[in-house]
Design brief:
heterodimer, B: mainly beta, seven-stranded mixed β-sheet, four-stranded antiparallel β-sheet, globular
């Protein structure tokens, strides 16, 4: 059974703080690692899809790195803003197009 | 495109009743996924289709759950009979088929199901 672990479960930071969280996944049979952002009362939206070891992706103040050999990915948010408050999900992409999601890291940014 | 469309957005029903959730994927997308979101288990994959054919239904909890995709633009998830423990948010998602790594998925707004 594939297991995708995310830590921490929740995080409370002040506006302006930089933060990061971790996703751990099986290092064998790797196809892709996805990051999704999920705001309360909305649907998950894709942030990044990463496929190659050493991949780094960036979108504004948010960036992600990937280490497929050791099975982890980091998501970084620089200078957190209240609008960054959301649950951040990572998902391990299977060979058949399916995704296995972690339980997410819930980020709260206080003004 | 309007994105993935799900209906109803909210459903309240009594235990034992049949519930049907509906999904219209993004036009041209080849994959369709049904997920269930609960506090305890997070986002669980129930079943997914490729070109209207069910690929993996191992996540379907039990025989009370069934899903169909009669054509490329419509899918249903049915629960019969429903039980209080089925209360959750059910998401539908779709994606484009690719020959390489897994494509990003586009999620619908979800259906919040409450079984009393």
């Amino acid at each position: 059974i594939l297991n995708v672990e995310q830590s921490p479960q929740s995080l409370h930071v002040q506006e302006g703080d930089s933060t990061n969280f971790t996703c751990s996944f099986p290092s064998s049979n790797f196809y892709a690692l996805h990051w999704y952002r999920w705001e309360t009362a909305k649907s998950p939206e894709a942030l990044f899809v990463m496929t190659l070891n050493g991949d780094e992706k960036k979108k504004g103040r948010i960036s992600a790195t990937l280490n497929t050999k050791e099975g982890y990915s980091y998501l970084y948010i620089k200078g957190s803003q209240p609008e960054d408050s959301a649950t951040y999900l990572c998902a391990f992409g299977g060979s058949q197009g399916n995704l296995i999601f972690g339980k997410g890291t819930k980020l709260s940014v206080k003004p | 495109d309007a994105g993935v469309i799900q209906s109803p957005r909210h459903e309240v029903t009594e235990m034992g009743q049949e519930v049907t959730l509906r999904c219209k994927p993004i036009s041209g997308h080849d994959y369709l996924f049904w997920y269930r979101q609960t506090m305890m288990r997070g986002l669980e994959l129930l079943i997914y289709f490729n070109n209207n054919v069910p690929i993996d239904d191992s996540g379907m909890p039990e025989d009370r759950f069934s899903a169909k995709m009669p054509n490329a633009s419509f899918s249903t998830l049915k629960i019969q009979p429903s039980e209080p423990r089925d209360s959750a948010v059910y998401f539908c998602a779709s994606s484009l088929v690719v020959s390489g790594p897994s494509p990003e998925q586009y999620f619908g707004p979800g259906t919040r199901l409450t079984v009393t």
